[in-house]
Amino acid sequence: xxxxxxxxxxxxxxxxxxxxxxxxxxxxxxxxxxxxxxxxxxxxxxxxxxxxxxxxxxxxxxxxxxxxxxxxxxxxxxxxxxxxxxxxxxxxxxxxxxxxxxxxxxxxxxxxxxxxxxxxxxxxxxxxxxxxxxxxxxxxxxxxxxxxxxxxxxxxxxxxxxxxxxxxxxxxxxxxxxxxxxxxxxxxxxxxxxxxxxxxxxxxxxxxxxxxxxxxxxxxxxxxxxxxxxxxxxxxxxxxxxxxxxxxxxxxxxxxxxxxxxxxxxxxxxxxxxxxxxxxxxxxxxxxxxxxxxxxxxxxxxxxxxxxxxxxxxxxxxxxxxxxxxxxxxxxxxxxxxxxxxxxxxxxxxxxxxxxxxxxxxxxxxxxxxxxxxxxxxxxxxxxxxxxxxxxxxxxxxxxxxxxxxxxxxxxxxxxxxxxxxxxxxxxxxxxxxxxxxxxxxxxxxxxxxxxxxxxxxxxxxxxxxxxx
Length: 469
What we know:
With about 475 residues, the chain is an alpha/beta fold. It folds into 2 domains: about 35-180, Rossmann fold; about 185-220 and about 245-285 and about 300-425, Dihydrodipicolinate Reductase, domain 2. It is built from 13 helices and 22 strands. It has helices spanning about 5-20, 55, 80-90, 110-115, 130-140, 160-170, 185-195, 200, 250-260, 285-295, 380-395, 425-440, 450-469; strands at about 20-25, 30, 35, 45-50, 70-75, 100-105, 120-125, 145-150, 175-180, 215-225, 225, 230, 275-285, 305-310, 310-325, 325-340, 345-350, 355-360, 370-375, 405, 410-415, 445. Strands 10, 13, 14, 15, 16, 17, 18, 19, 20 and 21 form a 10-stranded mixed sheet that branches. A 6-stranded parallel sheet has the order 6-5-4-7-8-9. Strands 1-2 form a two-stranded antiparallel ribbon. Helix 2 (about 55) links the parallel strand 4 and strand 5 (about 70-75). Helix 9 packs across helix 13. The longest helix is centred in the last third of the chain and has 20 residues, at about 450-469. The termini are far apart. The relative contact order is 0.16.
C-alpha cells in the first residue's frame, strides 16, 4: 500500500483543518462544511471511457481503503488499450509497483452497462469530453460518487446540465468533485500563503483591464513525454467538439487557482463574475506533426471541417478577462506543438498586492522550473520590508520546513524551496485523489467547494461564449 511520509501527513492534517474553515463576505472565518453520505467499507472504482492519460495517472499509486479491482467500461479502441498499458507498466515497475486488477467491459453501451451492473461506488472519468457532462449527470442520478478530470463541461449550452448534476448529487448524497492538480504545486501553494500575510502582501489590488490584479498564463504542448514515454494522443483530442477549446479546458485550472488564492474559503456566486472580454485563436498542425503525435497519416473525417489546405487549425488557445468580486483577473492558455529541448509546459502567475507582487516564472532564466519571486517595484522602505519578509518566511517555514529567502537585486527576492516539495505534475493526481478519499470517508466537504466549482465553469463557458460572439 502507499507509504506517506510523516511530513506529508502533517501537511494533510493542516490542510484538513484549513479546509473546514469557511470565510464570510466580511472575511471572518466560521466552521462550515457541506455533508453527503459517507462511504463505508472499501472504495470500489469504476473507470469510465479512460481516453485521456490522466485516467491512468489517478492509478499511478495505490491507496489505503481502495479495492485493487477496478472495473473499466469503455468503447473498443486504442484509447482504452493505452490506458491498460499504462496500468500494466505501473504494476510491473521495479520501484513501488502498484497491484491494480482491471476488469474490462468494452462495447458501445459501456455507460448503460456500468449503470446496470454498478460494481463500484466511485466513477472516475477522464477522456472524450463531448458527452462527459451527460456521463456525470447519469452517474450521480444512479447514486454514484464522481471524481472527474477537467473540464466537466465544454460548452455554454451544456452548463445548465452541469448545474443540474450538482443539484442531483446533493439530493442523492453523493460527492461530485473535479481533479484540480495545480492546487498542489508548491510555488502556487506558497504564493497563496504569502498573499494571506498582510504585513508582506498588503491587500490584493483591484487592478484594471489593462493591468489585472491577478494574471495566470499557461503554455502547453501537444507532443510531450508522460511517465517516460512519448505521449500518443487520440485524434479526437484535436477536435474542439470532443475535447473542448483551450478557453474551456486548461483555463479551468487557472480560474480555479484565482478563486482559491484570492478568496480562500469564500462561497462565491455566479453574480460575483463579470466577463469583460474573451478571445480565441488556433494552433496550426501540419500532417507531419499530426502523424508524430497520433500515429495517423490522415486526418479523420470529423477533423476536415477544421482544415485549410493541409493544415489542421485547432482552437486550442484562449484568453478571458473578467472581474471576480470587483477584482480584475486575466487567464490565458497557449498550446504549441512541441517544447524546445530541455523545456516543457510552463506557468506564469502574478498576484499584485499593495505591499508587493508575488510572481511565479518558469522561463529560461529559471531553467524552465517554476520559481516564486517577491517583488516590490516601488519600495519606499526596503529595510523595513525586508525585515518583515524574513520574519514572514521564517513563520511559514514552521509549516514548510526548509524554505528560505534569497536576496536578489534591489526590491526583489527569491523564495528558495527544497526539491522534495517539487513532486511533479504526475504526482499531483495522487494528492488530489487522497483528498477526495478523505472527503468520501468523512462525508464532509468544505462549504465553498461545490458553489465555487459551479462559478468556475460559469466563468470558462461564459468566456467562451464571449470569445465566439
